[in-house]
Structure formats: C-alpha cells, structure tokens
C-alpha cells in the first residue's frame, strides 16, 4: 500500500523517489531547460536580481554560504517565494515565469498529497499536517552547477540536512551527483527520468519526535556538463507567523515517551 511505502521510506531512509505523481513529464523537462537558459545568460542579464538580502521574494545568488561556511559551494541559485505571499509575476525572470508558475501549481498539489499520506502513515487524521499549515508556505530554488574542471577540489552543495518540513526535488536526468548518507555510507541517488525525489526535513523529524528521519545529503561537483535542479521547500509560515511554535505532536507520544525536543519557533530552530 502506498501509505505504508511512504512512511517506511520516511522512517528508514528519509529519502524516496516518486513516479506517477501527476506532474507532466514534458513540464518537468521544460522546467529544467528554462533553469539552464536562465543561468546560462550573460552575467549582466542576471545582475539586477543579484542580492544577499534573503528576505526578498525573487533573488539570484552565487555561493549562498559565502562569509558563513569555510568553503564556497560550486553552485548558483535563483530563489522564488511561491506561498503564502508569492513573488509578483513581474518579479520573476521572464525566461522562467510561465513555466515556473505552471510547475508550481502541480508541485503544490503533490505536496499536499504527500502530507496527507504522511499524516495517515503516522496514524493521524488525513488533514493533520495540512491543518498545521506545514504545506502553506513554500518556495522554489533553481540550482545550477557549472561544469568544474577540478571537481575533486570543491563540492556542488556541501553536506547538510534540509531545515524545512518536506522537500520535493527535480534533478537533471543525465548526471548523477546527489548523494545521501545512509548507515554512515554515502549512497548515490541516480536520476530517473520522470521521477521526483522527496526527502524529510528537520522540522518534520522534530514534530514526529524522531520517528521520521531528516538525513544529510550533498551534491558533487562534476566535470561533464552543467547540471540543474529545482527544489521545492515546504517550510511552513514562519515568515508570516514568526512567533508560532512547533514541538512533538502529542498524539504521537505514548505514555512511556518523552518529547525529544522543546517547542520552538522555526526562526529559533534555524538559528541553532
């Protein structure tokens, strides 16, 4: 049963791939093509969007961890807020605009379905996580990894776990670069044309009291060709409700269980 498969994957791996998800394959291909087109423009065409003010709803940035991490990532990113307060259509680069808005509609539907499946898998009411507004706030990150002539000297995205509730990832199908840490071993996540990758974020691990696993992953730099991916981060409503607190769901705690986390706001958690 699909519910059992989803919850088992969330508990044991924290990552899984989905097919027959309702997102048109030609739209997924077009989305990746447009990401390549945007990033492969001359620098001056993207300069107006470049900023390190991450409070804006439509931004372009290179080396997002600059000044924070000991090493830079070999990656550029365009970010667009999609809900609950989306970027205005005119704020989205015209190359991406129409395709991104159509793609986002499909991804929102898939995200809501996934939260329903996870809720049922946890033994909760089908709308439980939706009613918590886990899927109400989300954004798209369009990553671009240029080909690298010395990939052994850098990393595409350094190891990390996502700080959201749930991530849905679309990746180029011609280069295998994503790796997931499983049982202390780095495992390749080979691209499957038409599939989307789903992974548990830290906040879903927190509210499930460690039943669901948010695992570390990374992206290797590559020598072959540029690589693109589109990540949808379902991050809740902390931008609109910064004082809202999340903690382990009481219905998941048995009499012998103790909460493994204190209640916290999303901003407090991210800053830890």
UniProtKB/TrEMBL annotation:
It comes from the Eukaryota. Pfam families: 2OG-FeII_Oxy (PF03171), DIOX_N (PF14226). Residues 136-236 form the Fe2OG dioxygenase domain. Keywords: Iron, Metal-binding, Oxidoreductase. One of its GO terms (molecular function) is dioxygenase activity. InterPro entries: DIOX_N (IPR026992), IPNS-like_FE2OG_OXY (IPR044861), IPNS-like_sf (IPR027443), Oxoglu/Fe-dep_dioxygenase_dom (IPR005123). The keyword Iron applies. The keyword Metal-binding applies. Belongs to the iron/ascorbate-dependent oxidoreductase family. This is Fe2OG dioxygenase domain-containing protein.
